Amino acid sequence: MNVVFYGLVLLACLSAAFFGTPGEVGKAAMDSAKSAVELAIGLVGAISLFLGLMKIVEEAGGLKVAARLIRPIMVRLFPDVPPEHPAMGAMVMNIAANALGLGNAATPFGLKAMKELDTLNTEKGTATNAMVLFLAINTSGVSLLPTGVIGLRALKGSADPAAIFPTTLLATTCSTVTAVIVAVLLSRLPLFRGPESQRLADEAIKARREKSAPGELVPLALFVGAIGAMVYAVYRLGEAASAWILPALILSMLTVGVVRKVKLYETFVAGAREGFMLAVGIIPSLVAILTAVGMLRKSGGLEAITGFLGAYTAPLGMPAEVLPLALIRPLSGSGAFALTGDLISAHGPDTYIGQLASTLNGSMETTFYVLAVYFGSIGISRARHAVPAGLAADLMGVIASVLAVKWLLAH
């Protein structure tokens, strides 16, 4: 992130010297810093609301329910990890937490999963197939509840803040499927040869797959069918259906708490308090990125870069204005969120650019940050095919976001 921040400011200064705009660049730095603080303060309410609701779901056991849903498919995706090994439980909980938008809870589970996976690895320092696949799924941005982006759209006056719920779901699904396929295919190439222990584990894969019961997938299939029905309803009915997503989501989350006899008010307040601290905590990151981007924009450099690339991407549905977001999302989550807010403010939350930016932000992940943190925690120096698998997921996230917005929202 240090390189990104410094690089943007350096490029802004060089562009200012070339285009003759140093005065405008200096003013943009001050204006952008002010806008970043205003954006963060405006988000306090929305973030507090969603984290308060998620706290109720978490206390009601929603995370465990999600884990039970995805466990059958996890056993099939990771046949070289014993089903009852601690690594499997940690991975299931991590992916379930990510899917529900509980990023703070997902990271500890992820670190635990990596530590446990390393106990199965006899060649320390080299990533196993299971490690790479687990990281690929994490970097694909798998998410069912893009609560942060919905809150941002509501702050910016969207007539239907949750309209990007089905587009994000569709895009992140495509991204995750791509991550899995690419990770599995690349693991078979000699270039990305795995550790010696991987060969021994591969011998038991076929037998373990034969022992799995197909009936375990029924609950997951029903859940996927329900999600698919919702996406189809939004496609057929448009705003008449998507407008009900947010009210229904809030009511269902509270209802889960009532059924499970959770103390709604106390639990909500506890979660909202965490949301408040989170919103305040992102102010420095927003100031840094928005200041750098604001300087680059006023210098004329960003317009020159996106103008050149946009001539090729615009016919494909990717306007030049959204390109910086697509490029910075794999590098910085806070930076991408800041750019999303900037695009929504400039073009409107319900325009094509606003909807595409919202979907992109919700369906991609900070690939390099995740790889650095998770692999760094266990001393992995040979990541094998983790980077190309993660970048393939990011690329599919961009493509799927464009197609999803055009299919579901632009008709």
What's this model, at a glance?
This protein is an all-alpha fold and 411 residues long.
Explain what this protein looks like in three dimensions.
The protein is mainly alpha-helical and 411 residues long. The chain has one domain. 76% of the residues lie in helices and 0% in strands. Helix 1 runs parallel beside helix 15 and helix 2 packs parallel to helix 13. The radius of gyration is 22 Å and the shape is globular. The protein starts with a helix and ends with a helix. 49% of the residues are buried. The mean pLDDT is 80.
How many whole angstroms does the radius of gyration measure?
A: 22 Å
**What is the terminal separation in angstroms?**
38 Å
- Total domain modules: 1
- Helix/strand structural class: mainly alpha
Largest sheet: none
* Averaged pLDDT: 80
Number of helices: 21
User: What is the overall shape?
Assistant: globular
Instruction: Please tally the β strands and state the result.
Output: 0
**Beta-strand content:** under 5%
Helices and strands, in order, run as HHHHHHHHHHHHHHHHHHHHH
Low-pLDDT stretches are none
Report the helical percentage. over 70%
